[in-house]
Amino acid sequence: MVKTRFFRALASNPKLVAVNALICALTIALAVDPKQCIASVHSALGMFVQSVLPALLPYFFFTKLLTSLGAARAIGDLFRRPVALLYNAPPIGGYVCLMSLLSGYPVGARLLGDLYKAGVIDGADARCISSFASTSGPLFVVGTVGTAMFGSPRLGYALLACHVAGALLNGLLYRRRKTSMRRAAFVPPCTDNVLASAMTDSILSVALVGGYIAVFGLAIDLLISTGILGAIASPLAKLLSALGQDPRVANSLAAGAVELTRGCKLLSEIGLEAKTALPYLAGMLSFGGVAIAVQSLSFCSVCGIRIGFFALTKATQAAITISLACLVSLVL
Questions:
Q1: Low-confidence residues of the chain, pLDDT below 70?
Q2: H helix or E strand, kind and range, residue 136
Q3: I need a surface site. Which of 27, 57, 171, 328 has the fewest CB within 10 A?
Q4: Would 15 be classed as within a structural domain?
């Protein structure tokens, strides 16, 4: 009976069948070549420890303190007028956007979850704010992608400008029609353990991000080694070739749709000119990929933000940013 219900559920949901088939294939690949899998996870965790952990942990810790002690509202009040005028959102949205721009994925999503739990914002507020406060940070955009991967700080700054402008413009598409209700002033909790609580919560959050990075890094390597990624990218490669573009870009975009860093790295290995690579990088960076989406939703789904809405906002953000990048590439 249980088996019958299981197979009926699969039959009624083709997407579930595809996902289960992919997971089974990856699991079999784990058993077939465990040495490669261990090396892949080791590499992903090494990148996490060297690059992501030092960048994220301080931001997670300090933003948690600011939220807990009530300073987030004071900072948000500085952005009251522009946030209300542009997005019809509460002032705290300015604080979330600023922290996201400074620190990158998934700090904005994590802050939305914290503020929602504290009763500072409601679900509608969170959905509105998420449309313009889901960004990468300058450390990754300029330092990692522009300078380390492409050897061009100029490309990094151009990419950052397009990325930030695309996020801010994207929020206009999801502007609240009704004026957001003004919440009562947030009263910080009276506790002597706020530092310990902030540190514990931050370490757990960063560990969650590290786990996702390891799993999706492994998934990318398995997709490449099994040829699945190439098969997925094949139609896009044909389209790019017909448009006079380098078909090798397709593999980079397919990898970036799963894990952002790997996609950018693969694109840097092709040897494209900066002005040619800029639109592709802008699209990958703003869309974020599945790994970023899973990380973000693990924090902000409590606000009522569902995967469909999140994917829509990231798709429109990517489209806007690509358009801006195409214009900037003309003068780069």
A1: 1-16, 18, 22, 178-192
A2: none
A3: 27
A4: no
